[in-house]
């Protein structure tokens, strides 16, 4: 049995005075329920499903029957429902409050998207059933592709990447394939210091050398800095650049066209990290700026829920120069309907197709066709907005961020000066200099005030960053409450009062500050009963 | 627009506070060159119109539940209890972010910790991560991990590995400059001699799928021993995790890394995604393991709590030295898996596995009585391969017209390979009824006679 054997890592009795003097007998605090681990309450002899009875048949398992105890405790249905409802109550979520996480884009998740994604014609179809029996799904992919291509002004699309970072990998693989096709030995990728950490990780994984480009004092990349980097490394070595636009400091890269020209003139490709496309959708087309490849984070821009950390979806749009190198599978239109080309040797019927004859796919990124469930949600969001609504949404996102910027600019320092931002606004902790209070403390106090904190560990180029992204789905009322709360906390910190309260925060949460160092030093990644 | 809370009035007031005349002015000040929007895109639709449009697309697809259905090869149709989908739709799970603020994310973190334990136990490994995108990308990541551990750059794949999985590894091998060898495709047999013979001192890992893409089961012990004797790792791939309720776990048979597609438990077919990559390995490789992991710790009051941990391996700390570029997991799919597994429990999983096997045995016996059909597997779990007297693909198309989805013709996965064109892979899960089996047999008989 796994139950009630205690734990190797049973919590230690605290020897210090607790902030809250009286723990409850049950472990619960009012409506906040303490929930033990599944392994402490479930039983190996318990189940919450009634399966049909099984006709006895011969067993053809080749003598490989599993005879041991697996260690999977079960719960009855009411117990399971209660376990997971109680766990859910220990989470913050966009449906419960303001979630100003910069670079993560926590916007309203319309339930229509969920309803649409659960239509049996989308959930209950198999990736390998005959293509004639899934024409609706292929049409949906085609329709989503059309929107994404039109909104970006690009030439072709790869839908299959499973997440933003996977899309990055896909875009850079297309660039690598194009270089190989041209017998080019170019191996240097320029990456600004302020880039997402996935950018250099992606370039390195593909064998490129990363050359960092510093940002200017205003937080954006100068075309002249790119030119200098090209000259220092030699134009013939430049594979391309990975630039995020709008960038991770919430700023539009003003010289993006000149940067694209410089890289193109050197013979390289321009990869744009499109994580922040929600700031410009319906207003600015990356294709017009010289971008060769760009991924979307469908979950961020088009509101598919984050689900506690995935699944995401990261389609990539490509310029004409890179179109031929898109991975398998891709869609092909013909008089008979849509075909998903899964292999280049599918048969004679495609031999006269231009797309097929020119295709030089770099391979396959994943089994099957990508995140269909996310395509449905994204298209549902896109159709609900239409072109007019998408432009309004990006406009409102920018409006909200600038509103917060202006309301807080006298209290908090903007590391790159007072300038208009895009959909997110960046402050640092320099205004708090002598208060003994850090950005982390402010974030933890915000939790006690009922807000999810802003992004605080990122971007790395800014000490004590506070990256605030309100998105378009916040009302003025909710933003005002956030701004006033944050302002009050900063004033409290600057007044030198209650410093210890900041360090102790949060206190109104299911758990207080957690010991992350201990977790990393001696990782405990699974439950083990003490008898193991 | 119903998702946008602002009125013209509030927009005006906020613009006044900022001190600009319009939103366009903000873009201009920020240096963003506004362009003419594309005219081919329509304006917004009402909720009802969107529903009608998407329902119309959905209705053009033949859903698995609409009739006889035997398609497998890496994605399986199982019955998912109603409470699973209900619970994952709770706002606090559905609309939360990555648990970077652990004090207000204990719900997500605790279920990830429970999930990791369930996965490790199921796969027979010491530890598991909080999931990857899917089984196939997990397979690619496992090969990269084996390179890091062994400091060798040559992977050896079984010929009977799902071709899409092999495709993912080959894409990575080309792009990340390592070498891949693959043994011959041997349908219906778990022949491993050829594979073992190819292991040498340069081999970083041997990748074997069980049950393999044709449905055959493997005793991994001999391959594990042979690989490890040469300093290589054994990576086992499981595309149907329900099988592990009936057959021995790869980790228990000596696999160093076990990858599985977790879609079968708690997650629907979804036309290929989102799915759930299960990833487990030996404890000693923990710092080389890709992806996100959740660990146990204590809070300031000494109470047990959970945090994301080992982030020093991740892209946001080590950047170009990161173990992989992955920065997410399949959170909500993990939750669905974990809830379904909790409802099943050991008892339910074993029963579900038995039910699947018995359906498949029943199907194989019924099919083998048809003239022109030969079941080629000696052993299988819920999926096996038949050799027909004619090419399989036209027959599958013909049966589809009769509303019978008969399985995956091998030519779909290996186009233009003559010796495989008569092969058809079929899966039978608990969702298959006796009537479906009869329908398939009658349809197949008719098609073969035609």
Task: Describe the protein in words.
The complex is a heterodimer of chains A (532) and B (450). Chain A is of the alpha/beta class and 532 residues long. Chain A has helices at 38-41, 77-88, 111-117, 120-123, 135-152, 164-181, 198-205, 223-233, 256-265, 298-301, 354-358, 372-408, 439-448, 476-494, 499-504, 516-521; strands at 156-158, 188-192, 209-213, 238-244, 269-273, 293-295, 316-318, 330-334, 337-341, 425-427, 466-468. In chain A, strands 1-7-6-5-4-2-3 form a 7-stranded mixed sheet, sandwiched between helices. In chain A, strands 8-9 form a two-stranded antiparallel sheet. In chain A, strands 10-11 form a two-stranded antiparallel ribbon. In chain A, α9 (256-265) links the parallel β4 (238-244) and β5. In chain A, α3 (111-117) packs antiparallel against α12, α6 (164-181) packs parallel to α7 and α12 packs across α14 (476-494). The N and C termini of chain A lie close together (11 Å). The model of chain B has no long low-confidence stretch (mean pLDDT 96). In chain B, α6 runs parallel beside α12 and α7 (135-150) crosses α8 (163-175). In chain B, 39% of the residues lie in helices and 13% in strands. By secondary structure, chain B is α/β, with parallel strands linked by helices. A 7-stranded mixed sheet of chain B has the order 1-7-6-5-4-2-3, sandwiched between helices. In chain B, strands 10-11-13-12 form a 4-stranded antiparallel sheet. Chain B is built from 15 helices and 13 strands. Chain B is globular and about 80 Å long. Chains A and B meet through α2, α3, α4, α5 and α6 of A and α1, α2, α3, α4 and α5 of B.
